Each structure stands twice: as structure tokens, then as C-alpha cells.
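Working notes for the structural subgroup meeting. M.R. asked for a predicted model of this chain before we commit to crystallization trials. I am recording the input and output together here so anyone reviewing the notebook later can reproduce the run.

Input as submitted:
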Amino acid sequence: MRVEILCTGDEILTGKTINTNYSHIARRLVDVGLGVHWGTTVGDDRESLLKAFHQAGERADAVIVNGGLGPTVDDLSQEVAAQACGVELVLSDHWMTRMEESYARRGRVMPPNNRKQAMLPANAELIDNPIGTACGFAVTIGKARFFFTPGVPREMRRMLDEQVLPRLLAMSGIAGVTRLKRFHTFGIGESRADQMLGDMDAFKADGGIKLGFQAHYPQLETKLALRADDETALTALLAPAEAEVRRRLGNFIVAEDDQTIEGVILGRLLASGSTLAIAETLTGGHLAARIAPLPGAERAFRRATIARDLAELGAAAVSPDQAAAVAKALRASSGASHALVVLLELDEGADRPDMGGTICIGLADAEGTVTRQARLVGGRDWVRIGATELALDCLRRHLLGLPFDERIDFERR
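Returned structure, recorded in C-alpha cell form:
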């Protein structure tokens, strides 16, 4: 089945907003075995949109339209879709009631211009949006079935998984069930992960499981995609492959599926009744910001100190001994069971191949202190991001009883 993704909006067309929605939709289509044949971006212009709808309707079997469902004058998707179908816009009483109830639950009165979001082509099939006011819908234009989704990422993603993909799979005639298993790793790159996993029988042509990687520094996502006749068959095929991936990637796996490394850390702290204090230099509070907002963090997160200068933390230099001393002092002053410290020294000067930073991590608990020193090469932001992730990984490993100083691919001696 030929699928096209059509994204709308001047901010997308001009590059003012990075189009992450397109990449997410495309990845999810590939995950379920559909793929993408065309990708189109159109600004907020009626004539251009109408032309794009007609062109897509002639060459594709299905089109996912993203954006243009809001309440403002530049949101044109419903209006142009009705024009392309040759029908009128009509008020959906059902969706109008839904929006009014949503505003009422929040103690607000719905603005008059939101009525526009309940105006749909007369022949439209409503596609539910359980977490927003933008009503999705489907119509047929030319030879293609069009599925309209909002530009708000969290709304689009929910509708895509729950509403659009099941319809597309039914249209395609692809039978069975699918699953996407994801492993999040820190410390290894794509080439190394491919070497570690590439010879597995499950990933060969007749193995039934598709192996894929997606790098988003500092983590790497390893994906196993599988289709089977039913859930029982799917689990039977996938379970041994999952176990083998865990065995081969080992300690580098920091989380799985929708988990995050910070979520794993907080879960471990809460399960053991432990608490945490953090001190960091030159990472701008990124370390604390990964943990503090999580649900339940208030029961474990005692304190965060964000310093621009080493002296503010009582450190004289970036060294393992200084990191250990600061961690020990922080644990005592905060009353936390665990204290994590990140000391970072960035190289001075313009970007160059050997530019980077020296990172010293100290961790103190009731058993004493442990330290980790590393040098990461790259620009300032690259080093800051890497230092944050390295510190989180060191804490994760310590809490799980794993080796604290296992070498990572991004590290330089």
C-alpha cells in the first residue's frame, strides 16, 4: 500500500519549527510494516493545500495529513478538505459537546473561535482525539483515504497509534499482530551494537524479526520489529530474541520500551527507601532536571546544587579525589542516603578535533565513595549532554550493583 505523509504549516515549511511529527509518523509506519512512499510539506495557503490534496489523492492509497486543525484563521485543513471532496462544512454536534465539556471540566468557558474545530466535511468519518480539542477525521479524495491529525505531538501520537494505524492496517490487508520491542543503551554506538547483534539467527531473512537502530546521542535505541499470526506466536518468536539481546548488550541497556534511565533510577531509589542529593557544575541543572519532575520524585529527591564555579561546591580542581570529597560532604549536609556529584572542566578555545572536557563523577552512600573519570571529545553542548548521561548511568549502575567504570565508546584517554 502506498502511503503519503502530508504536513501543513508555514512554520514547518520555513524551518522555524523542526518537523519531528513527520519523523515520528514515518517511523511508526515502518514499524508496522507499511512504509512511506512520499513526504510533502505545504504552507498555510488554500490553493497550495488544495493542489497538494488532489496530487496525493491520485498517487497514494492513503494519506496522513498532519496539522491545520486548530481554531485560528491559518488552520485550513477542514475547509480545504471539504473543498477537495466537493462537500460543505457541517457542525459536528458530538464534537462541539465534547469541547464544551472539556472546557467546563477545567472551569473555563470555551472561546467562540473553537467552534471552528467542530466544523467537518459533510462526508467525514470522525477520528477521536481523547486528549485535545482538535477533531481528527477521514475522507476520501480521489483514489486515497485521507486521515487528518493535529499538529500537537502528543495528540497526534495517541491518535496515530489508537485510531489511524489500525485503519491503515485494515486497508492494507496485512494480517496478524505486530510488536515493537525497544532497548535503550548508553555507551555504545550503532556500529558496535550492529557487531554485537548482527549475527543472531533471529534477524536473518527467515528469522521473522527485523533489527533496527536509531541513534540520538547520547543514547542508542535498538529496535526489534515482528509480525505474527497472533499474540501467542508473536511472544514465542520474540521472547528468545529479547533474552539474547539483553545478554549481548548487557550492562549498556539502561531502559526498555517506554522506560527512561531516570525512571529506572527513581524506581530503584523508591523501592529501597533511598534518597538522593545532586551537585553539578557546567551542566546547567540538566542532571537534576531529569529526575526532579518525575512522579514520586518528591519522596526521594532531597536537594540539587547547580554551580558555575568549582569553588561554590568546595572543590579546588576537577579530579576524582575532589569529586569524592564533595559527594561525601553533600551526603552529610543533605541527609540523603546517596549523593551524586559531577565536576566538569571544558577545554578552552574554538572547536577543534581534540576539543572536549574532563568529567569527574563522585558518588557517596553509607558504604563509602566511588569515583569515575572520563574525557569526552566534542563541542561544549556535546560534552555537557554526555556528562549528564554518564552521571545518570553511573548512578544506575551503582544502584543495580553493576560495574561502575565500564568503558564507553564516546570516551577518550
